[in-house]
Structure formats: structure tokens, C-alpha cells
Amino acid sequence: MLKSELRAFDAVARNNGFSRAAKVLNVSQPTLSAQVKALEQRYEIELFNRVGRSVRLTAPGKELFEATTRLMQAERDARELLESYQGFHSGSLNLAAVGPFHATDMIVAFKNAYPLIDVEVRFGNSARCFERIVSYEADVGIIAEVPADKRVTTLPYSTHEVVVFVNTDHPFASRTEIEFSELAGQKVLRREPGSTTRMAIESALQKRQIETRTILELGSREAIWKGVEQGLGIGFVADFEFVPHPNLRAVRISDMDVRTKYFLAYLTERSQSKLITNFCKVALDLVGEAR
Known about the structure:
By secondary structure, the protein is an alpha/beta fold. The chain contains nine helices and twelve strands. It has helices at 2-15, 18-25, 29-43, 59-84, 100-113, 126-134, 196-208, 221-229, 274-290; strands at residues 48-51, 54-57, 92-97, 118-123, 140-144, 152-167, 177-178, 187-191, 213-218, 235-238, 248-253, 259-267. Strands 3, 4, 5, 6, 7, 10, 11 and 12 form an eight-stranded mixed sheet that branches. The longest helix is centred in the N-terminal third of the chain and has 26 residues, at 59-84. The N and C termini lie far apart (55 Å).
């Protein structure tokens, strides 16, 4: 009984409401409501604040949700382990990635090896990807500059140079490289906080005591590219992410080593997951083949 009540509670918390949770679990809403109510009454605790049709977790509800998240993930890992001995005939893998460039190659290689595993990827900056890993939203992160955290295991994947990119009307466009000091006073379009490229370039600017002029802060790589193309300012990107474009030019920095590092990352407590370890093996094999 407790297991079904906890599952009901977890579904309501995860789906932000009884109606959506009932559809996910394929049960009636009254049944789901009764299970959550029974849990609250048995332990004399309020897990949700109910306002009309919306629900919000109370403080005890938030703590319980953290516990049920771990519980549900452990159940999925156990099922995955058992299924793996049948040859990975089913299952799903959730990825969090800072961009499509590495992720796409990894997914293609993994699907070739394990075609029956469903793969879903969500993109975001490094900070958001890390949050998804520790909150059990993602099985594996393809992430840059992972903060030191005992909960998370990291596997170095690659290192890339950060380059400047400009539109074809910019004075830098006719050059293949510039000196770092030439960035002084340049109009810059920068990514949101949590972006590894932003952290790398700002650290280097601070080290050299060089000031640029931030024109806009934009929340996606695509928005930065569009702004640079329209001449609003210059941008920065890892070299492998720069896609040739008729209106844009990539320019190396000749006298300053500005780099970003990329890692595979997953929860240490899930290091026995065959789904995770097999994905990481496939991904790391790609690096070996490229060398």
C-alpha cells in the first residue's frame, strides 16, 4: 500500500497536478487523490498546498519528493539491470547536453549499437545540465567544466579552443587571428550565467585586465549567432562549434590560451548502471577513433 501511495505522490509532484499525473499512471483522478490523501492522513502531514486545480509542494512535500525521486530511479535502475541480461531489448536513456555537436555523434553511435533503447536529449548551459544530473532528470550529462562534487563522476572527453567570431563587415573578418589585447573596447554579445564559454573568456579578460562592452546578454547559442550576424557585436564559441557561414568569420586568439573542457558526467551512486556505462563506453570509443 505504501509503495502505491508513494508512487502516486511522486507522480503528482513530478507532473505538477493530479490530472496530468492520473494520465501518466493511467488511473482515475479520484483514485490518485485518495492515495495521496491516505498518505497524508496516515502520517498526519500536509504534502501539497492545494489552490484550485494547482498544487504546490509544502516543505515536507519537497523533502519527500527528493526521497521518492531517488526511490523511483533505483527502481528503474533495477529494472534496467534485469533487462540488460536479456540484451538491452528495451529501456530509455535521458541525456543533458550543452550543445548538439558532441551529443549527435554519441547518440548516432549508441543507437547503432543499441537500436531498441529510446534516447532523449535536452540542451542547456553547463549549470542547467549539472542540475539535471543531480536531480535525476538526466542519466548522463555531456557537459563542460563540471563543478567539483562528490555526488558526480566525470570522464574527460575533449578540450577545445575558444575563438572569436564576427560578421563580414567587422575589421577582424579579414584576419585569421588577433591578439587578446585587441578585444579591449569591443562590443560583445555574451551568453547567460552558467555558460562555460562565457566563464572561460571572462576569466581570461579579468586575468589580462581587459574590458569589453557588453551589448546584450542572450540565453542561447543561436541568438548569439543571429546578433553577431546582424552586426550587434562579436561573440565567442568553442572552435568545434563554429559552423561555416557566408556572413560570419571565426578568428583565433594568437597569444592567449582560452579553452573549454568537456566531460561525460553521471551520478556516482549510479555507476553500476549498465545503460550509463555502455553509453559512456560508446562515447569514449568515438574519441579513440578520432585520434
